[in-house]
Amino acid sequence: MTKIVECVPNFSEGRDKEKIEKIISVFEKHEKIKLINYEADTDYNRTVVTLIGEADAMVVALLDMVEIVMNEIDLNNHSGEHARMGAIDVIPFIPISGITMSECVTYVNVLAEKISDIYNIPCFMYAEAAKEEKRISLPNIRKGEFEGMKEKIKLPEWKPDYGKQEIHPTFGVIGVGARDFLVAYNIDILTTDEKKTGSFAKAIRQSSGGFQYIQAGPVFLENKGHTQVTMNILNFKKNPIYRIFETVKMEAKRYHMEVPSAEIVGLIPKDALIRSLKYYYSVDDIEFPEDITLHEIVRMSERYLKLRDFSVDKIIEYFL
Amino acid sequence: MTKIVECVPNFSEGRDKEKIEKIISVFEKHEKIKLINYEADTDYNRTVVTLIGEADAMVVALLDMVEIVMNEIDLNNHSGEHARMGAIDVIPFIPISGITMSECVTYVNVLAEKISDIYNIPCFMYAEAAKEEKRISLPNIRKGEFEGMKEKIKLPEWKPDYGKQEIHPTFGVIGVGARDFLVAYNIDILTTDEKKTGSFAKAIRQSSGGFQYIQAGPVFLENKGHTQVTMNILNFKKNPIYRIFETVKMEAKRYHMEVPSAEIVGLIPKDALIRSLKYYYSVDDIEFPEDITLHEIVRMSERYLKLRDFSVDKIIEYFL
C-alpha cells in the first residue's frame, strides 16, 4: 500500500510574490507530490504550503525546497508578525493513508538528518517526533526566535536533535515534526446569541471540561446573521465529528435553537467522514457500503452531517 | 447562610467492631454533625465515614475523632490491603452549600494546624488544598506508607505542611484536603455485550479522549443480566449528568440498544440534580420551579434522568 502523507511546510516570506512563486515552483517537477494550495500572509510575512504525496517523494521534495529557500531567504533581513526561527520555520508530516504515526516519525527523522548533513541547518524534532517532553511544543522550542537561537542553541538543554550547536547564518534552524490531521470544523447555530453559542462551545471543548481533543469558541458571522461554534478537532479518531455534532445539537435543544448545517474549513481525510457516516448508517440500520465513492461520501455527509458548501475537492483522497 | 460541608474521613481499622463503634460514637455528641453512614472493609482493614454538617462544627468533631483514634489505633500493629500512612489516613472536606471551595481550603488549613499543634501529628495538604503540584495527588504523598514515611518525611521535599519532620510514633501522618463532590453514577444498557458498553464508556471518559471529569468503564451485572456504564463524575458542574446520560444514549442508538434507567450510588447534592433537571425542563419548555421540593426533585429525576431505586434519602440536603 502506498504511504501517503500530508506535509505543511511554513516558510518565512509572505510579501515578495516573485520569490514565493519561485519557491513554490520547486514542487512542479515532483510528480508524486501534489501541491494543494499555498497561502501567503503579508502581515505574518510567511507562507503556508499544503502538499500531499508519497512519503519517500515528500522527503526528496522537501530537500529541494530547503535548497531553494536557502538561496532566496536571508532571515537577517526578515520581519513579520509571526514568530519564526528558520527560513523554513516548520515542517510537519501528517499520516493520511497506508502509514502510521510511528512511520511518519521515522520519515521526519530521516529528513532532518539529511537537512543537517547536506545543508548544515540544525533541526529540532517536535510534536509526535519530539525526543523530550519540553520539545513537544513548537512554541517552546521557538522561544527567542531566529535572533535568540544564536545563543540558545549553545545551551546543553537546547542542543538540536540533528546538526551542530550553531545556527545556519542566514537560514536559522528548522522545527521538523509529525502530528495528527487537524480538522477545522464549524457548526451553524441559528441565533444571534453569542453567549449561548459560547455555552455550547464550553460543553464540548477540553479547556472547559469537554472532549479532550476539541478546541472551540463562539463566533458571530456578520454576513450570515447567525453564530457558529467554530472548532479544531485535534484527533478525529478519538473525538469523531458525529459525536461533536450530536452533542452540540443536544445542547441547542435546550434553547430550541436550530442547528441546520455545518462546514469543513480546508481539507478533511476520507476516513474522518467515513467514521461518522458509519454512525448514522447504523442508526438507520443500513449496511455501510465498503466500496463507497468520494461523490457518495459527499452526498451522505451533506445528508447526515449537514455539511454545506462541501464538495469532493475538500476530501484529501480526491488529490491522490 | 450556614456553611455546610461533607467530610469523609478514612480510618485504619475495619475488623474490630468494638473499636470501630467506639470511634464512630464520638460524633453522637456533636449536634451540628450528622453521621450519614460508615462502611468498614475487613480486607482493607479500613473504615470510610460519611459526615455532613456545619464547617466550624466539623473541625471540632474531627479534632475529637483524632483524639479517640490516637488512643484506639497503633499503626505499628496494622495490616490491610489498602495503602495508609495514618491511623486516620485522610480527611477530605467537600463544599455542599453556602461555602466555596476556597473557604473549604481555609477550614482544612485551620484543622491541620490544630491537629499538629494539639496532637503532634504532621499533616500534608492535598487535592484542592495542596500547596505544591506534586502534593495534589494523595497516592503521591502516601507512597511508602506509614513504614516508609519515617524516613521520607525527613527529606526537604517531603516536609509536612503542618507539624515537625517526624511522624507520630503510633498514628503516623494525615492527608488533609478539600475536593469537589464526586458523584458515583451508573447507566444501564440493555445488552450483555460488554465490549460495546465499553465503547460507550470510552466515548465519555477522559482517559480515552472524552469529558475531562469522567472516569468510566463497562461492567456486567450478573444478577440483572445486562451491562452498565459505571462511572465517577469528578465535577458535576462542568460535566453535568444530563450531558453524560444523553451522550451515552446517543452512542447506544448506533446499536439500537435500550438505555432504560440509571442509578446514583451513595449520595448526591441537590444542586447536581437541579442542574440536569433544568436542561429537560427547558427542552420541554416548562419553567423551572425555584421552590421545588426534594420529593418533587426525586419524581422528576426518575422521569427525566430515569433514575431507579432513588429516594429522598440519597439527596444530601435531606439530612440538613
Describe the fold and architecture.
Two copies of one chain form a homodimer. Chain A has helices at residues 17-24, 55-72, 101-119, 138-142, 145-152, 194-204, 241-253, 270-283, 294-304, and strands at 4-7, 10-11, 33-41, 46-54, 88-97, 123-127, 174-178, 183-189, 214-221, 226-233, 262-265. The first copy, chain A, has 320 residues and is α+β, with helices and mostly antiparallel strands. The first copy, chain A, has two domains: 4-178, Formiminotransferase-cyclodeaminase, Chain B, domain 1 (2-Layer Sandwich), CATH 3.30.990; 183-319, 2-Layer Sandwich (Alpha-Beta Plaits). In chain A, the strands form two sheets. In chain A, strands 1, 2, 3, 4, 5, 6 and 7 form a seven-stranded mixed sheet that branches. Chain A has a four-stranded antiparallel sheet with strand order 9-10-8-11. In chain A, strand 9 (214-221) and strand 10 (226-233) form a beta hairpin. The radius of gyration of chain A is 21 Å and the shape is globular. The two termini of chain A are 13 Å apart. The model of chain A has no long low-confidence stretch (mean pLDDT 96).
Helix content of chain A: 25-40%
CATH topology of the largest domain in chain A: Formiminotransferase-cyclodeaminase, Chain B, domain 1
Major sheet attributes of chain A: 7 strands, mixed
Assign the CATH class of the largest domain in chain A: Alpha Beta
Assembly form of the protein: homodimer
Q: What low-confidence regions of chain A span 5 or more consecutive residues with pLDDT below 50?
A: none
Mean pLDDT of chain A: 96
H/E series of chain A, N to C?
A: EEHEEHEHEHHEEHEEHEHH
Supply the CATH architecture of the largest domain in chain A.
Answer: 2-Layer Sandwich
Overall body shape of chain A:
globular
- C-alpha termini separation of chain A: 13 Å
Largest interface: which pair? Answer: A-B, 24 and 24 residues
What's the number of domains of chain A?
2
Classified in CATH, the superfamily of the largest domain in chain A is Formiminotransferase, N-terminal subdomain
The count of β-strands of chain A is: 11
What is the number of helices of chain A? 9
Strand content of chain A: 15-25%
Structural class of chain A: alpha+beta
If you compute it from the alpha carbons, what radius of gyration of chain A comes out, rounded to the nearest whole angstrom?
21 Å
